[in-house]
Design goal:
Structural class: alpha/beta
Distance between the termini: 34 Å
Radius of gyration: 19 Å
Number of helices: 10
Largest sheet: 8 strands, parallel
Helix content: 25-40%
Strand order of the largest sheet: 3-4-5-8-9-10-11-12
Order of helices and strands: EEEHEHEEEHEHEHEHEHHEHH
Number of strands: 12
Amino acid sequence: MDTVKLGREGLEVSRQGLGCMGMSEFYGDPNEGESIATIHRAIELGVTLIDTADMYGVGHNEELVGRAIADRRDRVVLATKFGNERRPDGSWIGINGRPEYVRSACDASLKRLGIDVIDLYYQHRVDRDTPIEETVGAMKELVEAGKVRYLGLSEAAPQTIRRAHAVHPISALQSEYSLWSREVEDDVLPTVRELGIGFVAYSPLGRGFLSGRIRSLDDLADDDSRRRHPRFQPGNFERNLELVELVREIADEKGITPSQVALAWVHSRGDDVVPIPGTKRRSYLEENVAAAGIHLTDEESRRLDAAFPTAGDRYPDMSTVSR
């Protein structure tokens, strides 16, 4: 797989990464054996950017990823995040960007991952109660201490990005971006491009909806978090299913899958955009990786652009994003 640079500080990653969240929580029952095999297969296929966070499974995901990469650490660019604080039982505490928490969260992540240094460390969500300068100042100290190589933000608004970047260079912004989540095109993408910051697109398959495999809520496990998302609610669900039919139509014309069409669209947004589709199955991983080599024609892109936007908000509570 081709590699691209994120930011101007030297971070280089595969053209497509692997999101590991669903291996531990939110999207049905986990399968550790298959999840680890999926990470190993990703590395074999040239995927270097492996993405996790301390909140996924309340630390479980970092531990799983740490075990998976233990004997192949030199082939991985490991990204993790802090800021969404939870109790051991999984209950929500809140968003925390206080400097003392930044330091303790980093040490805890290093221990769970079983590594000496985190390649890319994101603030998962912006803390409204802590100035971004204080949070990034603590992150900068982690770089100076050799615990972190590059810094990132997630779901940050343009002015916050500018203020953070003035404290220490930000190498990557991670935010939701897909055919059905294009809000970042208005002012976030122009801002990071102006500043020379790379963009990492999470949920590039619209939480799996754009794969075409979800035809009704019955296709989701009872404890699947997507059941609570606005875009999966009655009315919105049916409207969004109509959009997926166009993705499927183009996929059939090209002899590929709907997932590959959706990922190819994200890849077409620019070399500074790196999607990190999440999966816990090797078969879906291989399908996703193949999308990095698929080209959409101008006409196909026009048809897709004309069909969207999507019905419903991205999250049940949008107050926690884009600060």
